[in-house]
Amino acid sequence: MFEKPSDNSRFEPRIVAFFCNWCTYTAADLAGTARMSYLPNARVIRIMCSGRLDPQFILAALRQGADGVLIGGCHPGDCHYQEGNYKTLRRIALLKRVLRDFGIEPQRVRLEWIAASEGDKVQHVINEMTEQIRTLGPLRLERREMLPALGEQPVLLEEEASAVGGGAL
Amino acid sequence: MSKPKVALYWCSSCGGCEEAVVDLAEGILDVVAAVDIVFWPVALDFKKSDVEAMADGEITLSLINGAIRSSEQEEMVHMLRRKSQLVIAFGSCAHMGGIPGLANLFTRQNVLDSSYHESPSTPNNEHVEPQVEYSANGHRLTLPSLWETVKTLNQVIAVDYYIPGCPPPVNIIKEALGAVLQGKLPEKGSVLAPDVPLCDECKRRESKPEQIKIDSFKRPHLAQSDPEQCLLAQGFICLGPVTRKGCGAVCVEGNMPCTGCMGPTGRVLDYGSKALSAFASLISANADDEIEKAAATIADPTGTFYRYSLPASFLHRAGHVKVTGDK
Prior knowledge:
The complex is a heterodimer of chains A (169) and B (327).
Chain A: E1 15-20, H1 24-33, E2 42-47, H2 55-63, E3 68-73, H3 84-101, E4 109-113, H4 119-136, H5 158-161
Parallel strand pairs in A: 1-2, 1-3, 3-4
Helix pairs in contact in A: 1-4
Chain B: E1 5-10, H1 16-22, H2 27-34, E2 36-39, H3 48-52, E3 59-65, E4 68-70, H4 71-83, E5 84-90, H5 92-96, H6 108-118, E6 133-136, E7 139-142, E8 146-151, E9 161-163, H7 170-182, H8 250-253, H9 271-280, H10 288-295, H11 301-305
Parallel strand pairs in B: 1-2, 1-3, 3-5, 5-9
Antiparallel strand pairs in B: 4-8, 6-7
């Protein structure tokens, strides 16, 4: 979980950014070495290809406190693995319809093609998305009860703990 | 030595899981010979007070089916948990939320409106809705309260094992009961079914091509399907590749695509988004508008991919904000 800003501070969006190793992550490196400054709201996670991005990761990020998820990959035709980015494009298109059903604004998930040379685009996209999410406001999932998902440990009341683990025959 | 005590209980379910126990047919005699059934509201006349009178941990095994969505169900499963050494979530609803879990796309009030006011076959001129408490002629009547959110069993009490399926296949039930009786149970928290996708036991497996590309998805009630060929290769959303085996692919046998009731294999936490991922990547198009067009042939992606597992998903339920605007 990320730290939550105290109530009286200005809302700072928390964005999880999944950048592909070959293009967008390199572009973010370039933005850094070129000393371009941009808003500090994106936490970058490097993945080998945007096609590695399991949609479960996006939902897990939103569940754990992200207000938005940014995905950066190579431009169409430039994928290091030939068609990983096309798979991402198809998945995000479908995922946005599902997010809408869950009551999550589709703008909270953004897919951008950013080539290794486009450090300025990293700067621009992160700044723009941060302001857009600021306008949307926090994703108030924490106001829902966060319950265990499949395969996670179940909730346990104290008085039940003694009965559990009594074991089989 | 007295026989182990077994309880069966139902929560928010359709009765299909009870049916599955009866489907053991003469096998049920073996079960009855091996255990004492001490509580089974659908079939035997034991009362809640009978269970209340038992010592904690006196019941060896409780098989609980159905999702949890009312105060009564919550109270009952907490009681059964206290009285039982082992609790098994029985069937898709207890395991993942099941069909009743789709109510999590709506609010409680939406559900009541639809059932009591908007349904064309329900005359309700006085706009009656169920009340938790009501007094008439000096009598006080009470009803359980309906929850806003449908939950899986393990979101309410600790669950030791899971038997998947809608309803659970007879052979899976037999094996699970056998494992309990012989004390040969796997690690706590396991799903008592093979951890391999359905395609592995599908008879049409040989006709599944190496690569599948789909430009438009078909719906089983709107298109004719070849009864021999892989349904996926024909463009139907057959969830076999992302669903646990164990049912013998009976739906495919009946020429209907798999809808995923057995849930995911063990390494998947959010079934719906994983299934979505698999099917989205089968789309043949590369251009935005063509992808949109192909994706639009999936009429209801949320209902299709989260059909049995919405409450168990990472997001559990829809928020109460209305989402408008473009994508």
